[in-house]
């Protein structure tokens, strides 16, 4: 009987040991092997370059390989569907922009695909504003001129973007809604084709990020009427905001790029990734490299990121429904 009590006591002690914080701490710390950063963007694009900078620095910090896997195409569905099937353990992360997260559910309503029901937000990466670009030969000098032309020419003024449902397309719909005008959207297959078309006068104007438009701008064939943001950009201090140039002050066209993970990521892993990504994005050398693309690194807490994306979703929903834009 005494022997049985001794064995029982030993078993209970072992059970307590296994359940103790010390025992749980023996599990491998994250990350213990290769982390893959998937992206919906193509090789060489701005978001891809940022992700590769991030992978290099995280690899040094984590002392584990961090690799980038490009899965472009299909409006982001190729990358999303591939990553959604993977374990929610932090070893597969996905880079998307705010349009994938906030506009896609309204553009593909019959698919009933809501990214934030399939993925957890992990960390914001960067923000990029959009410029209103016209040909250097355009007679318009400010937003007042563009809006007046839209009212005068009614349904014949054109603006371009890189695809239906892009920030450039929805931004144009937003401008038209705010000014009571109607403009014709002209989608292009490639960004380079779009801004060449603007420079040549084949399309009247277009929204564009600074890195996307800069090659044509630097050639002297493109001009910025305004930046669709609340404040001027430090790289272009002479370019006014839309409001300063005579346009609607509410117009704020931008894109937010973030990291996500398959739904169910453990909070402690999510918090570590968020903290380490923020640490990397705060490094002076990293900020300097992102500045060459006019990208603003973001270190927002996740509730603020979610709030921004939800606000965008509401804006996009109303614009998409009003213009009856459908991609399914």
Automatic annotation (TrEMBL):
Q: Which domain of life is it from?
A: Bacteria
The entry lists its GO molecular-function terms as: lyase activity
- For the keyword Lyase, the answer is yes
Which InterPro entries does UniProt cross-reference here? BUG (IPR005064), Bug_dom1 (IPR042100), TAT_signal (IPR006311)
Residues in the signal sequence: 1-25
* Swiss-Prot/TrEMBL keywords: Lyase, Signal
Specify the protein name: Argininosuccinate lyase
**PANTHER family per record:** BLR1237 PROTEIN, TRICARBOXYLATE-BINDING PROTEIN
Record family assignment? Belongs to the UPF0065 (bug) family.
Q: Which organism is it from?
A: Bordetella pseudohinzii
Q: Which PROSITE patterns match?
A: PROKAR_LIPOPROTEIN, TAT
């Amino acid at each position: 009987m005494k022997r049985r009590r001794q064995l029982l006591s030993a078993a209970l002690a072992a059970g307590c040991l296994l359940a103790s914080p010390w025992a749980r701490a023996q599990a491998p710390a994250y990350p213990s092997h290769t982390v893959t950063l998937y992206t919906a963007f193509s090789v060489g694009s701005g978001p891809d370059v940022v992700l590769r900078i991030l992978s290099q620095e995280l690899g040094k910090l984590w002392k584990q390989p961090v690799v980038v896997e490009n899965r472009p195409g299909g409006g982001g569905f190729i990358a999303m569907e591939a990553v959604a099937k993977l374990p929610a353990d932090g070893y597969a992360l996905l880079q998307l922009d705010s349009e994938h997260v906030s506009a896609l559910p309204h553009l593909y309503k019959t698919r009933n695909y809501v990214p934030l029901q399939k993925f957890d937000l992990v960390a914001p990466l960067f923000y990029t504003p959009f410029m209103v670009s016209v040909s250097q030969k355009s007679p318009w000098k400010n937003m007042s001129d563009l809006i007046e032309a839209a009212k005068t020419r009614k349904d014949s003024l054109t603006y371009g973007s890189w695809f239906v449902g892009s920030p450039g397309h929805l931004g144009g719909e937003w401008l038209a809604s705010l000014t009571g005008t109607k403009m014709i959207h002209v989608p292009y297959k490639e960004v380079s084709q779009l801004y060449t078309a603007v420079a040549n006068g084949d399309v009247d104007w277009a929204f564009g990020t600074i890195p996307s438009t800069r090659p044509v701008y630097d050639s002297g064939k493109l001009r910025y009427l305004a930046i669709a943001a609340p404040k001027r950009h430090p790289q272009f201090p002479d370019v006014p905001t839309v409001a300063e140039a005579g346009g609607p002050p509410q117009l704020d066209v931008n894109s937010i790029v973030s990291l996500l993970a398959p739904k169910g990521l453990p909070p402690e892993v999510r918090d570590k990734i968020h903290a380490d990504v923020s640490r990397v994005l705060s490094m002076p050398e990293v900020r300097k490299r992102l500045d060459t693309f006019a990208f603003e690194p973001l270190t927002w807490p996740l509730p603020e990121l979610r709030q921004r994306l939800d606000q965008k979703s509401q804006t996009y929903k109303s614009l998409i429904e009003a213009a009856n834009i459908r991609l399914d």
